[in-house]
Structure formats: structure tokens, C-alpha cells
Amino acid sequence: MTNLFNSDAYTFQLRQQYSLNASPDTAFWMEKYMKNKFKAFGLKRPQRDVINKEFIADYGFPPQDKLFEVVNMLWQMPEREMQYYAMELLYRFRKQVKKEDICFYENIITQKSWWDTIDYIAVNLVGNYFKNHSEQIPLITSQWMASGNMWLQRICMLFQLKYKKETDYELLFSFIKQLNTSKEFFIQKAIGWALREYAKTNPNEVINFVNNTPLKPLSKREALRRIKT
Predict the structure, then answer these.
(1) Extents of the domains making up the chain
(2) Which one is the CATH code of 111-229: 1.25.10.90, 3.30.190.20, 3.60.70.12, 2.120.10.30?
(3) pLDDT tens for each residue of 6-61
(4) Which of 10, 132, 138, 215 gives 20 to 30 Å between its CA and that of 163?
């Protein structure tokens, strides 16, 4: 089966299906919303879901040993919808991710980086990876925090968003203390989002942390937005 699979043909057929259903008017507004950083076919999520379902019925999924090759090809394509499909492929294979595959995640995190891909990767891919390979957390997150790359740092903030009671809040708080003076909007926003989400599980701990930690106004406002203090 693997020998019969052709990554070029697979990605070409997907791009063809998206192109046939493209909406230039919608694409204009999608590109504008994304600060014109990426091209788009103009396919909203419900429409993509329908196209993807039909495409998968016809062409299936790549074999696991071709997954990263296909994802890399999709990642290099100009239209943002191709990266969305790539992430959904990775999510489907998330339980088969190996310890060393974090290097592949890091590669796509640092290419064509913007909040839409970063947030999906943080919660759905890296979050799952660290649950399965928790011994990697100290090494990888320390490297990412020291990298100076805003998007890797945002991943560190957000990968525990769905952990709830399993959240290592001391680790989260240590990240925040390292970045609480950042002037980057996406870092300040991530700090507030991470704290707000953890507050659903442990509001008192979050309130105490916010009250005793100098935070940027945006971070503090976001952290306490749904807490009655």
C-alpha cells in the first residue's frame, strides 16, 4: 500500500478540490483578517469539512511513514487552508507520535507562524505530545523559552490549556514570570488566556498569582475576565 502512495499526487488532488470550490470574495476577507500574511482559497471551516470528507473517501489518509512528507508539502503551499488540512492530518495520527517527533513539530511551528496555526498546534498536538512524553517537558520547554522565538514561547504558555487538574501550574507560573515584561501582544494575550483557562479549575491560585505578580494590563485583564474578585 505504501509503495503505491504518491505524496505529490495526493497533495495535488487536495489542492485541486480546494481550488474548484474557491471563493475569491471570501478569500479577500480571510486574507485581510490574517493581515494579508497568507493567501487563501476562501473556504470556511464548514465548507472545508465537506470537501475533506469527500476527499478522504476518495483518497484516504497518507500511510504513517509518508505523513511528515505530505505535511511538509502542504506547509509549503501558499494557501492557508493547506496548512489547516496538514494540522488535521497530524491530529489524526497524534497517538502514533514518537519521542523524536517533537523536532518535526518545532519545524512547522517556526514556519509560516501565526496565531491560527500556533494555537491549534499548542493545544491539539504539543499538548497531546507532552501528555505522552512528559519526561520531555523540562528539556523542550526550557529550550523553547530560551529561543527568543515568540511562537515557541506562546506554545509553552498554551500547551496545558486542556489539562485542567493535571496542569502543572508551577511550571506555567514560571513561564509567565520569565515573560511578564514582554511587549509582544501575542505573549501578553497568551499569559492572560492561560491564566483564565486554569482559573476554571483553580481560581484561588490564579487570583493569588495575579495579585502577587507584576503583569501587563492586557494579561491581567484577560486572566481575571471571568473571575469575580
Answers:
(1) 1-96, 111-229
(2) 1.25.10.90
(3) 999 999 999 999 999 999 999 999 999 999 999 999 999 999 999 999 999 999 99
(4) 215
Q: How far is CA 11 from CA 4, 15, 90, in A?
A: 15, 6, 15
Provide the 8-state DSSP code for 125.
I
- Report the alpha-carbon distance of residue 13 to residue 100 in Å, rounded: 30
Count the alpha carbons within 13 Å of 48 in the hemisphere toward its beta carbon: 16
Same fold, 1-96 and 111-229: yes
Judge contact between 89 and 10, C-beta under 8 A.
Answer: no
Inter-helix orientation angle 150-158/137-146, to 10°: 140
Q: For the whole model, what pTM was predicted?
A: 0.94
CA-CA distance, 85 to 16, in Å (whole number)? Answer: 13
Instruction: Give per-residue pLDDT as tens, 188-197.
Output: 999 999 999 9
Instruction: Tell me: pLDDT of 229 over 70.
Output: no
Fold of the domain built from segment(s) 1-96 = Leucine-rich Repeat Variant (1.25.10)
Task: Provide the residue count of the chain.
Answer: 229
Helix, strand or coil, per DSSP, at residue 39: strand
Q: Which amino acid is at 189?
A: K
β-bridge mates for residue 56, sequence order: none
The C-alpha R_g of the chain, in whole angstroms, comes to 19
